[in-house]
Amino acid sequence: AGSGAGTDMRTEISTAAAFVTRLLRAAGGVGEEQLRCFRECLQEAMREHYKHHWFPLVPSKGSGYRCIRINHKMDPLIGKAAGMIGLSHERLFQLLPSELTLWVDPFEVSYRIGEDGSICVLYESPQPGGKAAKQLESRTSCKEEWRIGRSSPSKSYNMMTVSS
């Protein structure tokens, strides 16, 4: 499969997989060889999952589909990779944060730990041929929807109250 410049998702996927692997390593109890295998399996699972859902020209398209989520339920891609190295879902829940959201989009990988955690960018690269100002306006990816659609306001945002 020939992929043109800018359509390759290798960097984004390896960034995301390395991040989850680092979380596992930090928790301890998983060997380096297992971790390496986990990272490779996760990258492969993500590549397969995102194959027809990667739109560099419209980076936020399909964002919800590519969103990796642990929220009292194990993300199937992480679960699959962990299964390859013999880690059960129960064990994963002990090792990984119970609330983790990881957004893997063209040109940006970011994550949030906890429902009210702040969003941290792991990887960001400029979009080819895009004007930054225009991108920011049109950016209602799943991150924005999470922020808007959340029932409890996050502690890190100061809510402005408008009194009439």
Automatic annotation (TrEMBL):
Mind listing the GO biological process terms from this record? negative regulation of cell population proliferation
Identify the GO cellular component terms for this protein: cytoplasm; nucleus
Question: Entry's InterPro entries?
Answer: Anti_prolifrtn, BTG, BTG-like_sf
- UniProt xrefs under Pfam families: BTG
Domain Anti-proliferative protein positions: 96-115
The text of the family note is: Belongs to the BTG family.
Instruction: Kindly provide the name given to this protein in its UniProt entry.
Output: BTG1 protein
What organism is the protein native to?
A: Prunella himalayana
